[in-house]
Predict the structure.
Amino acid sequence: MKTSDTTVRARFVERPNRFLVLARLEDGGDVVRVHCADPGRLRELLLPGARLHISPRPPGGATQYALERVEHGPEGVLVGLRSTLANALFDEALAERRLAPFANARVWRREAAPPPSASAGIRTRFDFRLDMADGAASWVEVKSATLVEGGIARWPDAVTERGARHVRHLAELAAAGLRCAVCWVVQRPDAAALEPNEVRDPRFAAAVRHAAAAGVECWAWTAVLTPTEARLDRPVPVRL
């Protein structure tokens, strides 16, 4: 999948807020404003001087570029930092019949409203509703993971009450007999497994374990990236 027409290289300077990065262009040295679409902490990735791959944005906005990738570690592993890319890669892999757990999905819709939750205050949409070959619906929530420690992807990298609400709702639907799944797209190639991030968000870790016990499926895939392209790569186990 092509993710941008072109990117330029820059060096990370600072991150004044979740959605803004200041970066110094390698060609010319100007400091530019870069939109960051990933609201996570990213502290292990956005290190002083880290090489970024950024794409030009239309003129007239508050930022001149969008943050696409960061090179991480001594090998310069490319890590995707556009969280919406996870859904796009999942969608592409569905269309190409490359997702074994959902190979018999006939049609699907994004941002679909599920049956209401019995828990007060939970109103949401899930990332995908899949209509399977047998006529049953499957409800899927897709998460974008970027943090890898010792070869293990961990999600989330910051507290996410929204994420916990989603999996609690999925657990209710699964307990009622509906097929539900949480799917992680690890936006880098160097993970051997994925685990809930007990240290950063123990409530989410507890919620996803409860959901799995209720019948919610948990799947994860890595991705391979270039500065302008990305593709879902291989499945990795989810260890709860």
